[in-house]
Specification:
Elements lengths: L1 E8 L5 E6 L6 H29 L5 E6 L3 E8 L4 E8 L4 H29 L8 H8 L11 E2 L3 H9 L5 H9 L6 H8 L3 H13 L3 E2 L1
């Protein structure tokens, strides 16, 4: 689930709008993540200013930072010069996170072009508050990238499928753990595998209609 989402003016580094969907379970995690989060934002802003000072044109940029406790996504929309940034659970789907953060950045520009112009001459930000409803809807309340694979086949049938050689023993054990409460990251930690290895296994099981994602 997405913890927090920010829209930041890359010209000044000022927050235009933020939304919170979930608080961190541990203060330790929050203290460890936030300095790195804002450091990455500052680095991207510095890069944008450097490029603009040289040739005045900056292309779209997306940065993804993964850690044991969280995923950070930062997207720069060049036309609006606004950064869309999120902090989410480490077991959220990265592709879905990236897609929705880019969509939010583009939607913000589409709805608030004139308000951005006003803000950059007056610093008036109140018009942006209405965009919180868009963020809520687009992210499904912060849950857009959650994935909890669920088996469609009961255990004894899974065992028969394994006996027939359709799935490997490892795929059998993974399928059993797909009970709708375990994320791919949690399953990877159960078996000491990488997230990539587990995702490949889950895709195989999904292709066989054994699990749903």
């Amino acid at each position: 689930m997405i913890y927090k989402l920010y829209l930041i003016d890359s010209d000044s580094g000022v927050e235009l709008l933020s939304a919170t969907f979930k608080e961190f379970k541990e203060k330790r995690v929050e203290k460890e993540i936030f300095p790195g989060f804002f450091n990455e934002i500052n680095k991207m802003i510095d890069k944008i200013h450097l490029v603009m000072s040289k040739n005045g044109k900056v292309d779209e940029m997306t940065r993804i930072i993964e850690s044991e406790d969280a995923i950070i996504v930062i997207y720069f929309h060049p036309t609006s010069r606004v950064l869309s940034c999120s902090i989410s659970d480490a077991d959220d789907n990265i592709d879905k996170l990236k897609d929705i953060i880019i969509k939010i950045g583009k939607r913000f520009w589409k709805k608030h072009q004139s308000d951005l112009k006003v803000y950059r001459t007056t610093t008036e930000k109140s018009k942006f508050l209405s965009f919180k409803a868009d963020i809520e809807n687009l992210t499904l309340g912060g849950r857009i990238a959650e994935i909890f694979p669920k088996s469609q086949v009961i255990k004894n049938v899974l065992e028969k499928i394994h006996t027939m050689g359709i799935i490997s023993e490892f795929e059998l054990h993974v399928a059993i753990k797909c009970d709708g409460t375990n994320s791919p990251l949690k399953i990877s930690r159960m078996f000491g595998k990488t997230r990539t290895e587990i995702n490949e296994t889950l895709r195989n099981l999904q292709d066989l209609d054994i699990i749903t994602m």
